[in-house]
Amino acid sequence: MSKYDIVIVGGGPAGLAAAISARKAGVQKILILERDHELGGILNQCIHNGFGLHTFKEELTGPEYAYRYMKQVYDEKIEYKLNTMVMNISNDRVVTAMNREDGMFEIEAGAVILAMGCRERPRGALNIPGYRPAGIFSAGTAQRLVNMEGYMPGREVVILGSGDIGLIMARRMTLEGAKVKVVAELMPYSGGLKRNIVQCLDDFGIPLKLSHTIIDIEGKDHISAVTIAEVGPDRKPVSGTEERYTCDTLLLSCGLIPENELSRGAGVEMNPVTSGPIVDESLETSIPGVFACGNVLHVHDLVDFVSEEADRAGKNAAKFVDGGCKAEKSKEVIELKAEGGARYTVPSTIDVSKMDDLLTVRFRVGAVYKDAFVNVYVDDNRVMHIKKRIMAPGEMEQVILQKSKLEAAGNIKKITIKVEEE
Amino acid sequence: MTELRELTCIGCPMGCQLHVEIEDGVVKNVTGNTCATGDVYARKEVTNPTRIVTSTVVIKNGDKPRLSVKTESDVPKKAIFKVMDEINHVVVEAPTEIGDTIIENVADTGVSVVATRNIGKR
């Protein structure tokens, strides 16, 4: 069995940034395992601009952003295997993988970094009635076909869901000559960024119908039409509001789900809200030496934050390797709770002795809030009171905790993040 | 003559509905914004809206079938489809590197279309 200090599962933005930071922290034997035929992950198909404003202070396209990290991986001579599928991770960090050259093989890893990313919610998970014809794609699949393979899925398009990939594809297919007839969104607000609604829909006069869903799909072999209807506050269709749209393509942009089959197989404890692993301040999962970062941990809006998070995971994995790969029991663990509008926090626990001077805690809210406050409570004392003009489920929020303040408070049981009226 | 335009601000998730009063092509008044960003955005957007255009071109003898490209800087919004038309008529030969010029002065905008990927020879 071969041995590596750190094995990274996934060669997308999270895996690349984690590998680079682990190398900068002095780790020699690092291996990235990637199932696609190239590094870069989903960024390779995101040919639009808007990446890197936080990291590089300039606006890059997805492939350009990915290449900045790929180049560092090449320059640092970090090992990677492409076309390689990881089959299993054991709870003592033995990684089983396979590819055409090596067949099935096992690697003993000092530390493992989970960076598998996420998948789109498929039609099967959406309960849309009607036939199951060809011509129905997840927005990301269509993006890959158009931007990488050079195929147009169709000419008359309806999009269900207003996630960012759906909005981006509305513009992309319009630019390539398709007619995008409507974007229907079940919720009363969009799941995508404002900028994308304006520049991908409004620019081209594509209507966005909020509180609408698809109630029928027609077409026996290939999709020929869909019927959409308004939904009430109970998200049930309102009769009499049906509208039929002929189309040859339906794109689904209805949410992303972290891809954690390997994590579950290893026995990593999961957070049911994020569908990602439960992690501590070091981004370490419930299994010592197994770290998680990027969209496999929780779905991000901006790749810049994925890179930053992965950088921390890489550093912490390096510390674990430096320490002889021994599980260290935390003495004092503070529980982080999300309440009253905040849906979850990453991380879920903090050991003050292990945290950096500043720790970014990320969370999402469950609805649109205007002029509300993010309040942070240490046990029962409110220690932070931040006014927010707007918060929306589609935009990740954060608070930054200071180590010195937590140390000064001492003997803390829990920290609670709440979204409140005052 | 006074013209009224309605816009959604993209400065932040608030998405303020902006009302812009234009008189003889000059912005007279912006209302509906709740911060200075909205005012700046509205003035630019009604007088000179611009966008970066990204797309792909066909690449021959490459290890991938399509090369992703972008306009090196933003182009007038009304030129978008002319830019796309020129992009759609280009066929390039592998290899390419990020930043290679693919089309000079696309659609007379004074802006070049450049490669955003490295593509090797097949």
Description:
The complex is a heterodimer of chains A (422) and B (122). With 422 residues, chain A is of the alpha/beta class. Helix content of chain A is 21%, strand content 36%. Chain A has eight helices and 29 strands. Chain A has helices spanning 13-24, 62-75, 139-149, 164-175, 194-201, 261-266, 303-322, 403-409, and strands spanning 2-9, 30-33, 49-51, 60-61, 79-81, 85-89, 94-99, 103-114, 118-120, 136-138, 156-160, 179-185, 208-210, 212-218, 225-230, 243-246, 249-252, 256-258, 270-271, 276-277, 290-292, 334-339, 342-346, 349-350, 358-365, 369-378, 381-391, 397-402, 414-420. In chain A, strands 1, 2, 5, 6, 7, 8 and 21 form a seven-stranded mixed beta sheet that branches. In chain A, a hairpin with an 8-residue loop joins strand 3 and strand 4 (60-61). The relative contact order of chain A is 0.13. By secondary structure, chain B is α+β, with helices and mostly antiparallel strands. Chain B folds into two domains: 2-48, no CATH class; 54-115, Roll (CPE0013-like fold), CATH 3.10.530.10. Chain B has two helices and ten strands. In chain B, the strands form three sheets. Chain B has a five-stranded mixed beta sheet with strand order 8-5-6-10-9. In chain B, strands 1-2-3 form a three-stranded antiparallel beta sheet, with helices on one face. A two-stranded antiparallel sheet of chain B has the order 4-7. The radius of gyration of chain B is 19 Å and the shape is elongated. In chain B, 34% of the residues are buried. Chains A and B meet through helix 2, helix 3, helix 5 and strand 27 of A and strand 5, strand 6 and helix 2 of B.
